[in-house]
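pinned: reference chain
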Amino acid sequence: MLLRLFRRHPREWGPVEWLAVFGLGALTAVAITVIVGMARGPGRCGDDLRDIDGDCIGVTENAFEADPGVTSLIQAVADENARVRRTAESPSSGPRIPYVRIALMMPFTADEHSAMTTDMIRRGLAGALAAQRQANRFGGPHYQLLLAPDGRNLDQWEPVVARLAELSKDTRAPLVGVTGIPSSTPDTRRAIAALSKHSIPTVGPVITAATMNAPYFFKTSANNDQFARALGRYLAEKPGKHRGFLVWDNRAEDVYSQNLRSVFERHFGDAYGLTHHNSNFTGTSGTDKGIPQRFTDAVQKICNEKSDTVFFAGRDQDLPAFVERLAQEGDCGRTTKLRILKVGIGLEPTLTADAPTRRLDDARAVIVDASCVDPAWWSGKHKRGKALGRFLDRFDELKKPHKLDTEQLNDGYAVMYHDAFTLLANAVDRTYTEINEGGRRAPKSPSIPTKDDVYNTLIIPSISGDSCDSCLIGAGGTYGFEGPGKNDQWAVCKPVPVVEYPAPARADEERPHSLYRTYRDGPGDACPS
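pinned: its structure tokens
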């Protein structure tokens, strides 16, 4: 029929003939598109993710293109996810093992303005992978670690949250929680609010701004107010001359830095004269206009006023430039060391490398960090707890294939990402055991916990009086939560060591021995021994 149509003169064609031609052209175009797509394969982002402004965005259990420094770790997670799926769907031996999913929502690419550097991403991902592998060594449900990239600037969270909400409704292998939220920004604040609207329990491993709160949002780290309390205990034992100075990041979009500035002013403003002794700078993290890391004004004032205690309300990636500027001025005639007080998850390796360490010596300065971890925990100076030992065993397995080393634990990201995943996995295990014991379900058809079951387990107070029976025994210490309406789901009794770098050379200069623990919502702020 088509041949007869084409043999006719075009002037003799009617609507039917022209419709046939256009239809054939459309089918040809579709066929060409399909063939080209099959030839190219799924593309750099795979089948599950979309390319938005050069970043792969969405949720996947498979590998995809990201920064070269994290490629091998992404592939390792994808391999573990595939193994979990095979064991559940077609096990080679033994019974099928059910599985649930936990999503790692964070950037997997970085640039000079990102809140996370590529190295931070590597260490956080390594910690989550170590926790996944450890959890999959035991009985009960196994775990897929879904990768949920939301953009290097954390601003592509909406399609990610929408997909996570869909996956949480999967009855076969439900999404039961989210972790990985890495930074305190307006976008992450909106993201955690959206996740809460979908009733998805979410854990922030390295969130510290005290204002980052939502009903379903739990934090395994200390917050800025709690860090400041730890520094307050340190200063009570080593007050110095009370010649204080505040250096603060002026970027309005950085929730973390703005909150830390207000916390420092509230805790130390009067005692250290911060109201009239301060200077600001524009940090590198963010999109605010202006030249970043201009510290000349701050350093000149610190020198002129012979300040001995500087409170740094900014991100760690800007601190080396501040130290460099201090070193150019030397010790400024100070008779004591300059203490740079900061807070954070740990000591970023860029602060402790050879060159910054020399600059600290040139400036006759020391960093005093209220932290979530202490490098002494794995340096052999202290006996390792069981949970820390298990984590280090899994981390050691990752060192060679992914070019990691023990010093990269010092910033705390691997430890805290491990603990955040473990908090969710422990809640799943506890829930699974409870709902499948007591004869309510036959062993051959166990009930799989949902996100609602996991949340209801997490909000049961894990600390009661002197009891800490259901606390998280994590690599970063033993700590728990006090239930809904208390402490905004911040970790309770989390140890907060104060770490000096470089470490004191003499025994009489060692750090105070009293270890601060995050407060409880009650009289005395007491924690179980």
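why pinned: The chain has three domains: 2-40, 55-222+386-495, 224-371. The chain is about 40% helix and 15% strand.
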